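Single-chain item
Fold in token form
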Amino acid sequence: MTDKSPAGAAHARRDEDILVITLDHPPVNALSADVRRDLAAGIQAAQSDAQVRAILLVGAGKNFIAGADIREFGKPPKPPALPDVCNQIEASAKPVVAVLHGAALGGGLEVALAAHYRLALSTAKLGLPEVNLGLLPGAGGTQRTPRLIGARAALDLMLSGKHLSAEAALKAGLVDAIGEGDDALAAGLAYTRRLLAEGAGPRRSRDAAAALADKAAALAEASAAGEQVAKTLRGLYSPAKIVEAVRAAIEQPFDEGLRTERTLFLQCLESPQRAGLVHAFFAERETTKIPELKEARARRLDKIGVVGGGTMGAGIAVSVLDAGLPVVMVEQDEAALERGRARVAQVYDLLVKKGRITTDERNGRMARFTGATTYDALNDADLIIEAVFEDMDVKLAVFAQLDRVAKPGAVLATNTSYLDVNRIACATRVPGNVLGLHFFSPANIMKLLEIVVGEHTAADAVATGFDLARRLRKTPVRAGVCDGFIGNRILAVHRQAADMMMEDGASPYDIDAAVREFGYPMGPYQMADLAGGDIGWATRKRRAATRDPALRYVQIPDRLCERGWFGQKTGRGFYLYPDGARVGTPDPEVLAIIDEERRRAGVTPRPFTHEDIQRRYLAAMINEAANVLHQGIALRPSDVDVVFLSGYGFPRYRGGPMHYADSVGLDQVLADIRGYAHEDPAFWKPSPLLVQLAESGRNFASLNQAD
């Protein structure tokens, strides 16, 4: 071995006749300007070094290259540009080998595709997930990938943003071989020496022709993908550009295709969607910047208790079992416990049926599940999550029992969606151990976890909640105590705005269509039918005694609930669901009830355009979100965005309601609210924070600096 490694983001040293270039930019070897510069310098130096016969690219630490350096997002680009570095790698007169372990994503995979040979270790994850940031692979990825694996497979990889295992990448033709062991350098050196012994020279991806040999078939695959994008990804910008770039790979010479790719990449870079998706990316990473995590460390978590085996309790249990932790579920009797166990088993049986997990994996997870009908079984649990009926008296009774049996230092969590966590904590002797963990249904799928911090919750209990979220692979957001916390509090207000529009002349079907047109997967009345109308009805009845008499109350949803029309589970709600249908059809009887309620309320219906609906719906959401921020229920605007992106279907490419408000202009939002206040001043009260920001020319983004 010769030539000691110099320091650098990418450093080169010779191992006999192989120049090893190690990407060394912790924590994930992201492609910073320094990495690009040092990588390019290493490739260039190898060309004139007569002792170098081949070049090996390897990542230090646990990854090859995880992608772009997110710290450079939004800053002026520094040379060399990644496309130039990739072209330089591919143009090397000496064979370049990339050995992939851990993450080889985005620009990292594009570097590997520019290399002449690719060896993957079993740990490798390969992907081109730029679509998730509103971009396309812009360093030759859209041109090299189809040439290696064909148009259909390349489009699937880029449009889904999914990761491929080493085995899947080998099968697809993205890598040439799988190396043994977990030592990337040793495996890479052995593979490169074998190639040299075989007389292998440069083999450039740009020259690969077999996968696109049938041009007509490849163009047909691109057209089919384009049609699918138009149907399923309506409103998104970069997917159509990805299809266009792959079409260029099929139709154009390589260098011309690269120029087309670059043009399309820059168009994506300048789109508002890219800004929204990048904002969402950063916002999710900011949610863990909370004061409690600076003050305290998480308590130990070895065993979790779940009280309640209904849909929510079972979903929480699955989430915990998936994380490798044992769960003990407590129910009131053997029959209820068996139903809870069956719900958990049903989730895993379906995953086995779909081929998502093996039977052995299913059995391993179920082996960590135990059940009991007495609270004493929870006496060694480190954290206990209550997931019983949304009723304060029921929850107080549960917490009194938990206080009796829980070991000292155990964290007691309520999964309440609305109720007062401080009052629940008072049912225990140590309220500092109590917090809210508001899971979203289905709990084993939905990413959002609101971590509700009561006035007495200890910092280390909060840290434990965040640690659990990390282990469950949830997106945690810190929330203060109020009715509905962040998400459901705001939801109640913009749902009220929708109800008022419904009574004023817009049908629920018009409102749902307008909200879907904005980018939501479903509208508020479809969502109400899915969740169950009885849940909202119970909340409205609970709040009836404290409702402000000045606020307008629309009774249409109550009329449906009084008839037992609770949505999908009863076969009808705002929509009809004949024969167990999952997609509803409009119901003339609902429209008749709405007309009757309008007459009762003395309302003369008026028309609403989709734009009218969207503006009112979003203005109500933004205004209440500003109140949530003003009252300290949420720490920062980006946290509100994460709640709505992860838990409520807000279109990710719009960045969340706070980011969207900034893009529209807070002065415009405030003007809309003040205009609506002429009709209903009690409901349309501008938030003091919104007024303050709009009138001082500031935006919500200005409040996003972490503590």
Remarks:
- The first strand starts at residue 10 and ends at 15.
